[in-house]
Specification:
Elements lengths: L7 H10 L4 H8 L3 H8 L9 H14 L4 H4 L9
Helix pairs in contact: 2-3
């Protein structure tokens, strides 16, 4: 997951469209609300490493039933 960029606006938009709060997503992913905000605002804070943050972004996308290809703008993301 080298230099992967993701569509953070899409994640927030889909969450809002589904009527889910930041707390709802945080609870589903076993993350803190500040980590969800970090993902939605594309901030580097609140994660021990960039790669862990990207794993969480991927799980966030899955919770919203988004395809990984809709969220990430790189071919370097593993589909496993």
């Amino acid at each position: 997951m080298k230099n992967a960029e993701y569509n953070f606006n899409l994640l927030k938009q889909k969450r809002i469209e589904r009527g889910l709060s930041i707390l709802d997503i945080a609870n589903q992913l076993c993350l803190a609300e500040r980590q969800i905000l970090s993902i939605e605002e594309n901030k580097p804070h609140h994660f021990p490493s960039p790669s862990l943050k990207l794993v969480c972004v991927r799980k966030y996308a899955q919770v919203l039933d988004l395809k990984i290809s809709e969220v990430f703008q790189t071919d370097e993301i593993s589909t496993q």
